[in-house]
Amino acid sequence: MALQRIKKAESHFGQVVIGPPGSGKTTYCAKVYNFYKDKLNRKVEIVNLDPANENMNYTPKIDIMQLVTVEDVMKELNLGPNGALMYCMEYLEQNFDWLLNQLTKIKDRYLIFDMPGQVELFTHHTSIKDVFGRLEKLGYHLCAVHLVDSHYCSDPPKFISTLLLSLSTMLQIGLPHVNVLSKADLLKKNASKLDFGLDFYTDVLNLDYLLEMLDDGPFTKKFKKLNGALVGLIQDYSLVGFVLLDAKSDRSLLELKSAVDKANGYIYGSGEERSIQTLLSCAVGARTESERFDSDYM
Ligand SMILES: Nc1nc2c(ncn2[C@@H]2O[C@H](COP(=O)(O)OP(=O)(O)OP(=O)(O)O)[C@@H](O)[C@H]2O)c(=O)[nH]1
To answer: One Pfam family this chain carries (predicted)?
Structure first.
């Protein structure tokens, strides 16, 4: 019987790696590139969209620094580093055709986008949202992978601000979204010093416990009403949860891969066409990349 096919012309999959400075984006991009390529036999390329990325430990297929750099903008327009970065992202938005032209030269590859770290680019500014919105309309199935340093779990006010940052980024960017607590190896080492178990932070369990700690804190107790309103907002949306990431562990990279593949739809079939057979294979639990990895490496 001939296979029924769901036409998905020009369909591409990938992930957009975002997060505050130092959260581990570039390290993760390099690790995940090697992991997907060497351990999962996935065809993959990295796109660097950070115009100030000086310490790339990978070779990007596309590099925004060939279009514009923060250094040049600072010199030419006499701007500070943050203003220059904003300008670069607006310049990318205006030169979307440059990016699209580069992307169309890459055939049949899973894409990893390494992004700059300034959080306002993802919580307020619209250029990055616009660039990825246009790519989505052109058949790019992308998922935001939002890394935040898990060190923030060690302090209730910092964890609340992490939750607010993650929530506002999710709402602003508008892509399928996976929140990640990075450097989980360090978090696990210091787990005994945390106020709650790890599940409390990853599953964002009852935040009233955190609220009690804020209400008792020497600096935060005078903002009881504000604290209550902020925690209430996060709970009302009920959108934020986290996957732990230790970038040095293949097991951890594999767990995150599963979450990302579900979010951007990669598990339902990649490439230019999706067949009913692929969808059925997912439904009946056919041998997955994860299972192949387990049998080959575990
Ligand atoms: N222990 C540990 N350290 C990590 C991990 N991932 C990244 N790091 C370290 O965290 C630091 C920052 O990592 P980067 O990858 O440069 O972070 P970034 O988000 O790209 O930083 P910016 O380019 O400044 O935005 C580096 O010293 C990394 O070695 C991890 O899983 N565990």
So the answer is: ATP_bind_1
Reduced to 3 states, what is the DSSP secondary structure of residue 25?
Answer: helix
Per DSSP, the three-state class of 2 is coil
pLDDT bin (cut points 50, 70, 90) of residue 211 is confident
**Which pTM value belongs to this model?**
0.88
Q: Which of 257, 250, 294 is nearest to 13 (CA)?
A: 257
- Domains belonging to the chain, first-starting first, are 11-204+240-272 (3.40.50.300), 206-239 (no CATH)
Ligand 1 in reach of 25 Cβ (< 6 A): yes
Query: How far is residue 227's CA from residue 93's CA, in Å, rounded to a whole number?
Result: 37
**Residue 126 CA to its chain's centroid (Å):** 17
Task: Look at phi and psi of residue 269 and say left if phi exceeds 0, alpha if psi is from -120 to 50, else beta.
Answer: left
Q: Is the CB of 48 under 6 A from ligand 1?
A: no
Determine if ligand 1 sits within 6 Å of the CB of residue 261: no
pLDDT score for 284: 54
179 lines ligand 1 (CB under 6 A): no
Atom of ligand 1 nearest to the CA of 247: 31
Evaluate whether 16 touches 122 at the Cβ level (below 8 Å): no
* Alpha-carbon torsion (171, 173, 175, 177), positive or negative: negative
Radius of gyration of the chain (CA): 20
ipTM over the 0.95 cut-off: yes
Give the SS3 label for residue 249: coil
Q: Is the pLDDT of residue 11 over 80?
A: no
Minimum mean pLDDT among 2-6, 33-37, 89-93: which range? 2-6
Tell me how far apart the alpha carbons of residues 155 and 164 are, in angstroms, rounded to a whole number: 14
The counts of H helices and E strands in the chain are 14, 9
Closest ligand 1 atom, residue 117 Cα: 25
